[in-house]
Fold:
Amino acid sequence: MMVEQTQMLVQIMALEFTAVDFNLYLDTHPDDQRALMDYNSVVQELAVLKDQYQRRFGPLTNFGYASSQYPWAWVTEPWPWEVAF
Amino acid sequence: MPEDAKAQTLQQLQLARAYVPFQIFTTRLEPLEGLRRGTIFPELYMPYRPRERGSAE
Structure:
């Protein structure tokens, strides 16, 4: 696995963590506009990064969120436990 | 304290009430730092640090 690929995965994990932590905060603070704006920009950044990743290295989830090159990419990329971070 | 006295004392206790101050958003950590610490909110970062058995702090 390329260094760049693992770096992107780590960045995606970090952004996803930021998004879910904002999710938990916003559940109890739905009127916090500043937090909401920050959350929205994180979501946008995350979507761009995931799109870039999936175009280059294949799908992040098994179905529904990225098209696949031939052959079916889900089973040809490394499994999560095979990635050395 | 003998066991039956202990049990009686426990039965007389009221249930606990928990109070949690309402969190106010200040700033957030960078995504990688948040992932490492387990929270993106600096004021919620309260790690347990290893210490000698029996020492007060």
User: Anything to note?
Assistant: The first helix of chain A runs from residue 3 to 28. Chain A touches chain B through 17 residues (CB under 8 Å). The radius of gyration of chain A is 15 Å.
